[in-house]
Amino acid sequence: MSNQLTRRLALLADEQYRDVLRGGLRGIERETLRVQPDGHLAHTPHPAGWGSALTHPEITTDYAETLAEFITPAENDIATTLQKLDGIHRYAYSRLGDELLWSQSMPCQLPAEEDIEIAWYGKSNLGMLKHVYRRGLALRYGKAMQCIAGIHYNYSLDERLWRVLAANEGAAGKALSPVAYQSEAYLSLIRNFRRNSWLLMYLFGTSPALNSSFLRGRPHKLEPLSADTLYLPYATSLRMSDLGYQNDAQSGLRPHENSLDSYVATLTHAVNQPYEPYQKIGTKNASGEWIQLSTNVIQIENEYYSTIRPKRVIRTGERPIQALCNRGVQYIEVRCLDVDPFEPVGVGLVTGRFLDAFLLYCALEESPAISEQEGELLARNFARAVKEGRKPGLTLTRDGAEIPLRTWGEELLERIRPAAELLDKLRGGTEHVDALAQQAPKLADPDRTPSAAVLRALAEHGNSFAAFGLAQSERHAAYFRAHPPTADEEAYFTRLAEQSLAEQADLERTQTGSFDDYVKAYRASNLCPNHA
């Protein structure tokens, strides 16, 4: 361990800081396609019983009308977060009819592009802004890519913890304001995450195969597994490979996470920088209908695809970058986790416990700035892990030399162990150390990984991604339908649904001004005073 990590772990182990370490929050966003009983994409609107996708705090849509997104409240314990996620699923199924929630990250058998409906949020200016943004995504990336689902893990540490660390670091800790110190600490976490996130893909990737309809005739180097399924024999997560969230405009967009200022400046530039192919398309079609919000590299900040983001809860009328500028980083959002097809809610408690130890390690360990050259190396390591992570003898690059993935992974588990032990000391159990221990066999034997388990399950279903996905979706549906919401949960979600519908109706009734003026004002809003 580095001196910094040893010192910080010893400090936080002190009894007086127990409540500080306990105070962080965990939230999960789970995406999932609604499908018909035959496993094909549903074509129905967002279920009325779920409420308004525009204003509901826990049940919304992502890209497509049929791509649901379930958002938990933030909780101190990931076990509580997962209970809340389970409750959302059980209520959702009670209002879903005979449809199913797709069990995989990669989409089901998809129809033609024109038959994938973009999410609709009503006629308010805010709702139309969200809809037109998604029209732009369709133009830029294609609709199939936007139907990929994932798990987003929102993580924060108690703000008092950063103040404890700053006070313990003497003059260096006092050189920054509390807000600036916290922001830079989260960016340090992000840099360490980038150095080590290949391990998450190896340990938890579950998308080694996909339905052949997803590629839409694009060139690829995948191998046929069956008539309807393509794969790579050693892949862990095709979702996170270059088959996923990629396009030419974003290929050169690499926000610098060495400081909040440089991160904000890069994204601000991308939101304001014209991109010639998009300029040729324009923002409206020949009929005067909006088809994208702008012709810039990205339409809004959220279009930047990343495995991890610094975040801050936004206020009404505020944009994400403005929130970061005005009040600093509040939490981080991990975006690279595949949906686990063997878990009804898409992610398991052991994964959550491991992530908590992994992220605490990333937060406390030394984290020097990442040069452009190192950034490219880290991207290559990540790409190797997602496309050939289970390949015998696979090596990654570290400190200018090749090191076996297994060796580095085992070293990382040992480095993370003290963070897991600290979390267990806080709880009085062994859950985090146990979660760590369950990962070691995967490094010793690639056949123990979830991606290998998926390939075995595919073989049991004729090597058909569609057949396996449908079988798992049916299994999960049976579980949720056998465990309907409690009376309290029913009342809670019914109230949220009714309130959200009333809020949307109120927005549509009271808004003023044209949509053209609304977009103009949105685009003209000063993202950040120092970087406009």
From TrEMBL:
List the GO terms this entry assigns under cellular component, sorted alphabetically.
Answer: cytosol
The record's catalysed reaction(s) read: L-cysteine + L-glutamate + ATP = gamma-L-glutamyl-L-cysteine + ADP + phosphate + H(+)
**Is ATP-binding included in the keywords of this UniProt record?**
yes
Its keywords, alphabetically, are: ATP-binding, Glutathione biosynthesis, Ligase, Nucleotide-binding
Q: Which Pfam families match?
A: Glu_cys_ligase (PF04262)
Give the enzyme's EC designation: 6.3.2.2
A GO MF label: glutamate-cysteine ligase activity
GO terms (BP aspect): glutathione biosynthetic process
SUPFAM superfamilies for the chain:
Glutamine synthetase/guanido kinase (SSF55931)
The record's section on Gene3D superfamilies has: 3.30.590.20
Question: Which pathway does the protein contribute to?
Answer: Sulfur metabolism; glutathione biosynthesis; glutathione from L-cysteine and L-glutamate: step 1/2
Residues of the Glutamate--cysteine ligase domain: 10-383
Family membership, please give it: Belongs to the glutamate--cysteine ligase type 1 family. Type 1 subfamily.
Q: Which NCBIfam families has this protein been placed in?
A: glu_cys_ligase
Name under which the protein is recorded = Glutamate--cysteine ligase
Q: Which organism is it from?
A: Pseudoduganella flava
